Amino acid sequence: MIGHQFGYWAGQLGDGRAICLGELRDKQQQRLELCLKGAGKTPYSRRGDGRAVLRSSIREYLASEAMYYLGIPTTRSLSLVTTEETTKRDPLYNGTVINEKMAIVARVAPNFIRFGSFERVFYQNRPDLVLMLANYTVFHYFPHLLEISESTRFHEFFYEVARRTAILVAKWQSVGFTHGVLNTDNMSILGLTIDYGPFGFLDGFNPDYTPNGSDDEGRYSFKNQPSICRWNLQKLAIALSPLFGEDETGVTSRGLHVFDEAFESTYYEIFSQKIGLGSSSPNKELIDELLHVIVGADFTLFFRRLAKIKILDVVCFDNEWIQNQESFFDVLRLLPPDRLVRFYSWFNQYLTEMRRVDMKDDVREKEMNKLNPAIVLRTWIAQRVISEVEQGDLSLLEQTFGLLRTPYEENDSEFYNLPPTWATDLRLTCSS
To answer: pTM for the whole thing?
Structure first.
């Protein structure tokens, strides 16, 4: 692929490990592309071998399905095939080369067209190919736009891509997902999560969380994802500019405004539901304050255990009360005293809001748990699975796959608990 990498035009990106086998239709006659990743050299492999190692293949296989069952738009994994062959890799980019087992993932999606696909032909100075690709994309994947006049059709196409991208990144933020490498070639034109490399889910809530060990400046950190997606849309607008006519600046500005509005509304609606207040008229100040005071608390478990509190039974919320709520206090134990005091204040405001809503505790818990997963594919969980599979044991892989298919249901597995101490600060690279 071609695109912008870490903020700079980089020409060809990637290691040429993916190859499209063709297109098919599902039972609903929807178009699907079937793609292999790691099957061997392709015309774009350059100096690479075109293969994928087992650890990265397991992560992609599990992550794409985990995201699907979380309700987040994503490419899917059809199969994972391991081999007895090995290849040499430097997984930490520190000069330590090791032999690693290889695997092949079969991926499926309506298409694998990226922002970088349009950049490729634009920077080849081929406006005719920009038009051809845009026509193809609209005809097959945005057919409702065919009813719009040709003079503004691609304006609306850009607005629709902006809207889908905004909704996608808002959903990422709501479950603590960090993609890790949001180059323009890793941005789907359909608003799908695509290319699972050095991604990670939050353990303790840290807005600066950066799972990619190669991202020293934190460009693709958790908190930066919305602004990076917006930046990438600006680059897409440049690539589409031959189709915008004389109002290129106006179309770009309007598209970014669509992104801003869609992100803000989706983000606050989801977080309002996560704390049990419904999606209408979200209390933005209450949500913003919460996300300031819970830095350090386990992101996934905080919302899940907040749902368990019997609001109607709370008479006096203070330090003594919270320490009696053992499982809830557990997720707050890393908060410094000053932020714990702020949390007390926040919770009293929250109590006021919840009593205004007047919802029974069991109903509130049920509604909150629809938006708050009990399990996500944390880095340490994936690492545990990888270690077992590398030893030839597939049982934990199969068990974890089953758990990730029902993320909003609780289980007695250790994966539903706070992360172990060895899992602190695990980071990844693009090595695969």
So the answer is: 0.94
